[in-house]
Write a structure and sequence with these properties.
Number of helices: 6
Number of strands: 11
Order of helices and strands: HEEEHEHHEEEHEEEEH
Radius of gyration: 16 Å
Largest sheet: 6 strands, mixed
Structural class: alpha+beta
Strand order of the largest sheet: 4-3-5-2-8-11
């Protein structure tokens, strides 16, 4: 899919990372190559879901937001599927943004951590050269011959019996953690965060 996109600009792409996305993940073993992605489950939709499917990843599609929207957009089904996948030892990565609101972490990733007992690891993957899209999520497409950086933040734990106030504090920690790993990643490639 990426090659088709770049062909419109008479370019051949060499994947060097993705920027703009805010992600957190749970990994049981280190991912060192594309082969390690086979069978992993990611909560990712749209174009990103199609890309990772081609890499052998199993996307779990569903959107969060307000409770009424979660039911309409498959968020509750996706939450159950992700809890089942984590219970079975599957590695998982998901975006933390609220739908259509960039850089604001939603409660979904916090609820998943609370219900699964797994910590959240803020994660940023960025490149120095990129095409910054004029989209709600400030997505970027990494360009060939870029410097890349992957930065993983400290784990964020959510207690099974966390109160509503503690859940909100955890959500804010996820948001701050994601902003921090993006700041550090862009600094490593000598660039600034286009979504900040």
């Amino acid at each position: 899919l990426m090659r088709e996109f770049y062909a419109k600009y008479n370019m051949i792409n060499f994947p060097g990372g993705n920027t703009g996305a805010q992600m957190g993940g749970w990994f049981r073993k280190e991912v060192k190559s594309l082969k390690d992605l086979k069978g992993l489950k990611f909560r990712i939709g749209g174009f990103g879901g199609k890309v990772v499917e081609r890499l052998g990843v199993v996307p779990i599609r569903g959107s969060g937001g307000s409770p009424d929207k979660m039911h309409k957009r498959g968020g509750m089904l996706a939450l159950r599927e992700m809890l089942r996948a984590l219970a079975n030892g599957t590695t998982m990565v998901l975006t933390a943004d609220v739908p259509k609101v960039s850089r604001i972490a939603g409660m979904g990733i916090v609820v998943l951590a609370q219900k699964s007992g797994r910590p959240i690891y803020p994660l940023a993957v960025v490149t120095s050269r990129r095409i910054d899209l004029n989209s709600w999520d400030h997505a970027s497409i990494g360009l060939p011959f870029s410097k890349g950086a992957i930065v993983i933040g400290d784990p964020i734990h959510v207690a099974a019996d966390a109160s509503a106030e503690q859940m909100e504090i955890a959500r804010q920690l996820v948001e701050a953690g994601l902003n921090e790993v993006h700041r550090r990643a862009y600094a490593q490639v000598g660039s600034t965060d286009p979504g900040a």
